[in-house]
Structure formats: C-alpha cells, structure tokens
Amino acid sequence: MSNVLQIAWLIPILPLIGFIINGAGRNNLSKGVSGFIGSAVVFASFLLSIYVFIQVKNGHTDVLHYFNFINIESLKIAFDFKLDQLSSLFLLIITGVGFLIHVYSTSYMHEEPAKDFAKYFAFLNLFVFSMLLLVMGANYVIMFIGWEGVGLCSYLLIGYWFRNNDYTIAAKKAFIMNRIGDLGFLLAVFWLIAKVGTVSFDEVFSTVNLAKLTLTDKTGITLLLFIGATGKSAQIPLYTWLPDAMAGPTPVSALIHAATMVTAGIYMIARSNILYTMAPLTQGVIAIVGLATAVLAATIALKQNDIKKVLAYSTVSQLGIMFLGLGVGAYTGAVFHVMTHAFFKALLFLGAGSVIHAMSGEQDMRNMGGLKKHMNITHLTFLLGCLAIAGMPPFSGFFSKDEILAAAYANNPLLWGIGVITAMMTAFYMFRLYAMTFLGKFRGTHDQEHHLHESPFAMTFPLIILALLAVIGGWVGIPEVFMHGGHKLEAFLEPVFANTNEYVNAHHPHEHLSPSKEYILMGVSVAGALIALLYAWNKFSKYEKTELPSTGFAKLLENKWYVDEIYQSIIIQPLRSLSVFFNNVIEKKGIDGFVNGTGKAVNYGSRQLRWLQSGQVGAYVLLMVIGILVLFIIQLFL
Amino acid sequence: MGNYITFPELLIWLPMLAGILCFISKKEQSAKTIALIFSLIVLVISAVSLFYTDSKFATWNIVNYFYPNNIGNSFYVGLDGTGRLLTFLTALAFPVIFIATYKNNYKNAASFYGLMLLTQSGLMGVFCAMDALLFYFFWELALIPVYFLCSKWGGEKRIQATFKFFVYTFTGSLLMLIGIIYVYLHTPGRAFDDNTSSVHSFALNAFMNASLSASEQNWLFWLFFIAFAVKMPIFPFHTWQPDTYDQSPTSVTMVLSGVMVKMGLFGLIRWLIPIFPLATVKFSHIIIILSVIGIIYASFIAIVQDNLKKLVAYSSIAHIGLMCAAIFAMNQLSVQGVLLQMFNHGINIIGLWIVIELLEKQTGVKHISQLSGVANRAPVLTILLVIIALANIALPLTNAFTGEFLMLSGLYQFNVWYTVAAGLGIILAAVYTLNMIRNVFYGNTNSVVDTVNEISFNEKFILGFIVCLIFIIGIYPQPVIDLTKSAVTELITKIK
User: Fold this and answer.
1) 10 Å Cβ neighbour count for A361?
2) Is A70 in Cβ contact with B478 (below 8 Å)?
3) Are A141 and A78 a contacting pair, CB within 8 Å?
4) What angle do CA B398, B400, B401 make, to 5 degrees?
5) pLDDT > 90? residue B44
6) How far apart are CA A147 and CA A178, in angstroms?
7) Which residues neighbour A144 within 8 Å (Cβ) at sequence distance 6 or greater?
8) For the whole model, what pTM was predicted?
C-alpha cells in the first residue's frame, strides 16, 4: 500500500531539477528551452499530483519516510512527506495553477534577455519546489523549510529587477516581515519540542501527546504559529509587505497570491486544526484579526488606482475572510476558499498582466478605460473572475465565501454582519476596477491606444482555463441546502478534520442553521454584493480623470491609513536610532573608551614611575630601605 | 603507548615542520608551494582521522609521553569528537585560505607563510591537548604568530589594532595561567609508568578531580572564563575584534574568525565546564544574559556599519554569542547545536571573507556606501555570495539552520525569554545581511564597480566548494552530529 505513493518525492524534486538546469544553464539556454523546461517540470509534477490525488481519493494516505534530518537521542526529525487529503488537494492547486502561470510567463516575460529569462524560470521553479515541500512535509520542521523557502523565493522574485532600488527595498521588506513571523513559528516549534519532544504531525496530534499539553501550552503554541501565519499570509500587523510585493513581474504576483506563499498560513492552521480547536482563545483571536484585516484591506482597495494594488489588497482582504473561517472552525470552508481564490485570483492577476502588457507597462487605471473593444478574451475572462470574487452565484467564490459566512453567523451574527459588509466592499472595488479598465472611453495616450492588442495565445490560454475553473470550481462544495450530498469537498476532507469534528461534537455541538435561515443569509449577502456591484458599474463606467487631490477620508484610504508611515516612525526609526546610539555612544565612547582609557592610564602611570629609575644609587638605596621597613611593619602586624 | 605515530601528533607537527621549512626557504614561490602542499596533506590526514573514531583505534588517537622526575606534566594529546571536528575545521580552513589568496603577493612571503603554519600547528595543539600546561603552550603558540602577522602585514592602523588585540588577549591568557597554576596546586598526584610519581598533575582528568571548594570554583571560573570570553569574544570583551578584523590581512582575519574564535568556545567545553561544574551552574544565567545582550547589541551595531569587514565582525560576535549561550544552557540539543555550528560558522565566515577580499582587491574599497551594483559585473560572484550570506542568516537547508535550530531549541528548554531575545537576532541578521546585499550587489554600477571583473576559476572553485559544503551539511547534518554525539553526552553528564 505504501508503494503506490513512494514516487511522490518526484513532485518537489522535478521543479528543483528545473531550477538547477535553468540556473546553471542560464547563459547557454535559449528562451524557448528555458521556458519549456521551467513549464514542463511543473506540468510533470502536476500529472504526478493528479496520480497522488487519485490514490488518496481511493484511500491510500501515507507518511513516506526518506531519511533522518536530525537524529539525536532527545529529538528525531525525519525527512518525511505526508500525503493525505489536505496535502494532495494543495498539490493540485500549486502545481496546476503554478503550471498555468509558467506557461503565461513564457510569453509575458518574452522581452527579457535570455539570461534573465532563465533566471526568472529558475526562481519560479524554486518557488514551486519550496511550496511543495511546505505542504508535503510530515512535520513542522520540514514545513518550516518550505515556509522559509517561499519567503526566500518571494524575495528573489520581487527583487527580480534588481537594478531598481524601490523593487529591492520591497523585496527586502517582504523577507524581513516574513522573518518576524517565522520567529513566532520557530518558538512554537521549540515549545512543542520542549513539551512533547516531537514535531511530527501524526505524533503531536495523537491523543497521548495532546493530553500532555495544557490549555496554556495549546493557546501559546497556536498563537505563536498564528504569528507565523500573519507574516506569510499577510494579516495584521504583518501584511504591509504584500502590496509592495507588486514590484515583481505580474505572473509572480499571481503565483504569490494564488498558488503559493500566502496560502501557507491557511494550510498550516488547517493542518494543525485539532490544536486550534482545543484553543478557543486563539480561535477568537484569529477570527478577529482575520476580519479586521479583511475590512481594513477592503477599505484601502476602494481608493487605489494601480490595478495591481487593488488586486493585492483584495488578496489581503480575502485571506482575512479565510482566517475568519479558520477562527470560527470552518476549516473546510477556509480550504475551499483557498482553492476557489487560487482560481479567480490567478485569473485576475494574469488578466491584469495581460492589460498591463497591452498598455505597454501602464498600471494606473485612471489612464485606462474602454479596453473591452480591444481585448475580447482578457475582458471576458476578467469579468468572470470579478463575478467570482464578488460572490455572485453560481460562480466559485459564492460557495466558498458563503460557507465561511454561514459558519461565522453560527458563531456570532456580528462577525457575519461585518463579513457581509466586506463582501459588499469587495464587489464594489472589483467592479470599480473592472469598469475603470474595460468600460467607458480610453483615457491613455495616443501611442498606448495605437498599441492596444489582445495578448498572444500563451497568455490567453491560461486565462481561459482559469476562467473556467473560476466559474465551476465552486461546484465541488455545493451546500447541503441546495443539494443533498453536494458538498463533495467536505466529504473528501473529512478524515483530515475528523479529530476536530469529534472534539466539537463532544464539547460544544453547535446546532445547524435551519435551511430557511441559510437561504436568508445567502440572499442578504448576494443582494448586498449585487447592489454594490451595480453601483460601481454605473458610477465608474463614466469615469473621468480629475486632477483634484482627494481630501479627508478618501485621502486617508488612498494613503492606506498611513500604516507604512506609522510603522516607519514608531518602529523602524527608533530602532535605527538605537543602532546609532549603540554604535556611537556605548561601543565607541563607552566600552572602547574604557579600554583605551586603561591603556592610557597604564602609559601615564609608567611615565610617572619612570623617575624611580633615576640611575642614582643613593635613590635606589633609599627606596630599598623604605621597602624593607614596610615589609617589617607588615610582618609585625601579621 | 607511543608505539605509533598518532593522528594528533601528525596534525600538530606537520604544520610546524612546514612552517619551519617556509622560514628556511626564503623564496616566495617555494614558501607558497610548501604551505599549500603541507596544508593539503594535513587535510587528508585529518579527513582520514574522521573514520577512525572507534575505541579500538585508541592507540592511533591518543598518546601520552612523559619524562622521568617531572612536575606532573606530559605531552598528552588526543582526539575526541569535539577535537576531531575542530582539527578538521582547522585542517580545512588553511588550504582553503591558501588557495583563495594564492594570487596575493606578500612582502617577505616566507615568514608570512611560516607564521601562518605555526598558527595552524598551535591551533591543532589547542584542540588536541589533554594536559593543561600543554594546552597553555599551544594557546600561546597559536596567538603569538598572529600578533606578528597583524602588525607586519596589516592595514594602515594595524599597530593600534594589534596593540588592542594584544592587550585583550594577553590579559586573558595571564588570568588563565594564574588559574591553571592554582588548580594544579590542588590536583591529586600522578603515578607514571616508570614507578615515579609527582605530587600534582597537569592532566585534564586530574584537573577535573581537583579538590576545589565551591567558593574557590567561583573565582577560578572567572579567571578561565575571561580568557575564553575575550577569545570568542563575548560582550563586553569584544571591542578588539572589529578593529583587528578590519586591519589584519584578510587571510589572517579568516584564520581569526573562522578557526581561532572556536578556541574560546572549545576552551569552555573542554576545560572550563568540566573543571568547574558547580560554578558553571551557578553562573550560567549571568553568562547567558551577557551572551544574549551581545547578540542583540552586536546585531544592532551591524545594521549601521558601513565598513564591510566590521559588519562581518559584528555579525560574528552575534553568532558566537548564541553559541556561548547555548553551551551554558547545557542540554543535549543546545550543546549538539553548538558543536555543529562551530564547524558551520567557520566555513561560512571564511566564505564571506573571500568575497570581501575579492571586492576589496578589485575596487580598492571596503565600504558599503562606496559600492553598488556588483551583480551587473560579476553575477557568479553575486550568486555565490548570496548563498553564503543566506547561510550566515541560517536559512533552512543551509548548514547554519540545523545548528541554530538546535541551539535555540535547547536554549528554549533552559529559559523561554532568553530564547525570545536571542531569536530577535535572527530577524536583525536578516536586516543587516539583506541591506548589505542590496547596497553592494543590487542597483546600478557606479564608477568604482565599473572595473570589477567576474571571478577567476580558482576563486569560483573555492567558493563553489564552500557552497557545496553549506548545502551538504544543510541537507544532511547527521554525520557531523554522529561524530560529536558522544562528546555531547559526556559533557552533559559532567553537569548533571
């Protein structure tokens, strides 16, 4: 039984091989070859992932042992992969969406020199490798290897155009913010090691070991892990790197936002579901942080004019919704939303890339408009993506978002209410984006207008596939009220969350919402979103450029609540001053001053003592006599 | 006993012989060749010694020569896990340094290489000595050539820097000597094979069994500790280091930072802790606090350093601080992490120095603000540097990750808050390292960097070799762990 999955090690290794080939051969490979290798290895991983998925679906889950990473008497960490329902689902998303992004990139990045082109694909492959390691790892340490790996890859890709200083600053920011979160993750792992002496998922989540953890342990560990998740999945307070990460090439944004990286936090918590379920305090924190992030990011997205920035904040907001789901115990819902979000957000980013490509690099929506006529496929697929993210039935986002919102209602109607408002804002800013880009009349320069064109097939093909998925991807999770046994995903993931379900049923079973109530909730959220959608459509299809600067609240939103500026002045500046203080005052004047002072004192002292060596015999005799006298006196007293 | 030529003897005497040959040769080229060939031979011997760890090879690994009617000292050297690891690091470091700086022309090269090899011999002796007097002898043998190397071949401010270095380390050494004599006077006697005996003994086991009261341990502990603390260095005994690293010729800096700082850590493990177990437990909090302060303090200073060499120096102080803290956390995880990390730190920091040396040689500057966009001119150098720098900040799958993970994990079991504070060092390390990469390698080239050329084959080879080691140990650290496992257990039991 274990043999059928043994081949799974190839899934991460193939992209790694792609990375090595493209990295080592970047000076010799033509663009065609490096693009092909980069895409082919991910496609091969995708095929293997399908195979694994089918095996898992047939009940063949397993933990595959490869070698011992660390083996000490008091701690054994094995290089193991865990293949179960959760990881196999993520494998499909990562390699599937990842593959489409690779294909898209072969065309999008075509103007890059061959050397950089190969470097780009090498990094892309490395990114996929790290993410695969993250989801396949059978313990927290292997997961952490991938966890920091994706952080590194985002750093490399955001700073891909390394000659541009702003971009490299954004890259650095991403890495450091992630590292702050990573420290939380590490501390949680240390805590686990100290208490249960193991980091393997199966062992940590066993009844014996869970019993060893007190409530404080569970709360502490889960909170620390959550800090890690706020870094990786861009939640308050560590979210500010993600919008800046737009500095990277657009397909990279798609990769970061859809297939890899930001979903890591969700995956990790879903993986640790039993720990979280047993730590209600943490769950409350997650729900509140998630919701707060969702609202904050949505308000910022309302006033952004950069097409990629809007999408970036929408990701932050959607991730917030997923965390809300995790916080209220809707693990399946959160994973479901990861999946649908991967489809429509990859679609939206790649669509935006197509628009930017057509606009010769222009990203400001104020200079767009009317692109509908020029870009049929991009326009249509983008519209489908917008409908999906806005939660319109029967598009994919509707099912996953409403599953989370329903669970939130069961937990606390207030959470649901704020969630619905967020959903309305989402519909508003997405259709503002849509209308400003595709509707109305063209507001750019003549050159740009002349240049407008639909993107080549390598770019539109992924758009079409993703659009299809964005439409139908939600049908694997049709709620019970619509169709009995419709929620295929829930049934599939059931074993992963079995412990949690058992625990919840034993401790505080929540009553199911009545069908009528569920219909009402859905109706309200869809109606709200629809109103916001139509309002935005109406308002922004007639958008005119104005030179008037915004004032008041609008200005506050345009400047993203000044969060970056606040961080700069209350954290970064003081720490920098502290560095300068340590260097200039304590180090140079304090410690070194003391050392040099001692040196000087010795010098001075020896100069003063020099008169003793006067060379006059009389003086020496005098000193000798004094010395002898002193000795006598001392002896007298002892 | 003494029937064979043992590993430790070969490791000590071969470099010394080579050093003397260098002095005699007088010619630059022949001195270079001698140094390279002998250091490679030593590397091979040391590598072979890694495979003869079993106790049935004891006669190959340990030897004890003594003289009739002596005061209880003897030529007593041996290799255990820790010693084997560090002698291997020493054996590895020198050829790497010689190859990386092969093109450098030193004036008076014969004495330069001669002194370098004497240092190697001294270092080997330090890591093998099982006799306190012998240990002290080698300790000084390793240090004294470095004073000459710094003061004769160093930068502009070399005299000042060497003086500071000398005052610090010499004060430390003297304190230790006083300590050694005091402990010696409290050791049990020693019987020799020829039926003679001495009243006291300098042997390591005798030192461990010295009859010292708790209060005596308390002050003796500090005599030894300060000597080792200066060498590592630990806050606030560290200010000699940035200046010395900055002013020494780079190959000497590589020896100092790659190998010689390990003398201090090794001293703690081999001598201080086993001899003064009571005091160790008593003072562990104070020392860990000092170390942790050092981590944060040095990291903060590293952030504002403009001088690349000082940046690496402060980064090293932070890293060593963590190792010292982990030693005093005294559990299996933390000590195992230290042993692993001692080796890794040596490799990584030598790699960093090689890159800095290359940059300085080509551009004539070593200040971050004067450099920009090196990646445009030398992509291979950049890639290799980025990998080494990432290893320096302990990214997973590089060698330093396992070491830091184990150390912090062990420290966590000792005290949570120290770990949290030490963990901040991980974040700060990312800040200064990425700043450095960004400012020096990214961006557009400036006039200084315009003349930089891609690195030559042997530079690629040696940096590539270091990068390979980084990944091999990073992915599969188990052999290093296995090598040092028993040494860890032995040390821990001393305390428990």
Assistant:
1) 8
2) yes
3) no
4) 75
5) yes
6) 9
7) A137, A182, A185, A186, A189, B396
8) 0.92
CA distance A101 to A258: 10
Tell whether the model's pLDDT for residue B67 goes beyond 80.
Answer: no
CA distance B470 to B480: 13
CA closest to B433 among chain A residues: A172
Quick check: A428 pLDDT over 90?
Answer: yes
Q: Are B341 and B400 in contact (CB under 8 A)?
A: yes
Residue B244 sits at the vertex; the CA angle it makes with B241 and B245, to the nearest 5 degrees, is 80
Residue B430 to residue A186, Cβ atoms within 8 A = no
Question: Could B434 and A175 be called an inter-chain contact, meaning their C-beta atoms sit closer than 8 Å?
Answer: yes
Residues of A in contact with B333 (CB under 8 A): 72, 74-75, 193
Output DSSP code: residue B369: G
* Inter-chain CB proximity B435 and A172 less than 8 Å: yes
C-alpha A120/C-alpha A99 separation (Å) is 14
Set of chain A residues whose Cβ sits within 8 Å of the Cβ of B329: none
User: Cβ(A557)–Cβ(A299) under 8 Å?
Assistant: yes
Provide, as residue numbers in chain A, all residues whose Cβ is less than 8 Å from the Cβ of B405.
70, 141, 186
Q: Which of A349-358, B355-364, B445-454 has the lowest mean pLDDT?
A: B445-454
Confidence of residue A1 (pLDDT cuts 50, 70, 90): very low
Interchain proximity A194–B402, CB inside 8 Å? no
Q: What letters, b where the CB count within 10 A reaches 16 and e where it falls short, cover B21-35?
A: bbbebeebebbbebb
In tens, the pLDDT along B193-218 reads 666 777 788 888 888 888 888 888 89
A533-539 long-range contacts, Cβ below 8 Å, gap at least 24? A533/A390, A533/A392, A533/A427, A533/A428, A533/A430, A533/A431, A535/A428, A536/A427, A536/A428, A536/A429, A536/A430, A536/A431, A536/A432, A536/A434, A536/A435, A537/A431, A537/A434, A537/A435, A537/A439, A539/A432, A539/A435
Q: How far apart are the first and last CA of chain A?
A: 89
Closest approach of chain A CAs to the CA of B192, in angstroms? 38
Q: Is it the case that residue A2 has pLDDT exceeding 60? A: no
- Which tokens belong to A239? 């979210």
Residue B190 backbone dihedrals phi, psi, to 5 degrees:
-140, 130
Mutation target among B300, B383, B440, B468 for the A interface, most CBs of A within 10 A? B300
Name chain A contacts of B376, Cβ cutoff 8 Å: 163
Asked if B239 and A145 come within 8 Å (Cβ–Cβ), the reply is no
Cα distances from A357 to residues A109, A398, B225, B309, B481, in angstroms, run 10, 30, 65, 44, 53
Grade residue A45 by pLDDT with cuts at 50, 70 and 90: very high
Do A576 and B303 make contact, defined as CB atoms within 8 angstroms? yes
Q: Which residues from A are below 8 Å from B478, CB to CB? A: 67-71
Beta carbons of B163 and A599 less than 8 Å apart: yes
- Residues of chain A with Cβ-Cβ distance to B477 below 8 Å are 69-70
Side-chain half-sphere CA neighbours of A32 within 13 A: 0
Encoded tokens for B40:
């490679």
How buried is A292 (Cβ within 10 angstroms: 0-12 exposed, 13-18 middle, 19+ buried)?
middle
Outline where A303-445 has alpha helix (H): 307-327, 331-358, 376-389, 396-411, 413-438
Report the run of H or E that residue B428 belongs to, with start and end: helix B416-441
Q: What is the Cα gyration radius of chain B?
A: 22
Pairing relationship of beta strands A62-72 and A75-83 according to DSSP bridges? antiparallel
CB pairs below 8 Å between A and B: how many?
Answer: 134
Looking at every residue in chain B, the average pLDDT score rounds to: 89
User: Which positions 558-597 of A are in contact with B (Cβ < 8 Å)?
Assistant: 575-576, 578-580, 582-583, 586-587, 591-592, 595-596
Do A444 and A359 form a contact (C-beta atoms < 8 A)?
Answer: yes
Q: Can you tell me the distance from the alpha carbon of A152 to that of A144, in angstroms, rounded to the nearest whole number?
A: 12
Write the residue in A72, A148, A183 that is nearest to B423 by C-beta: A183
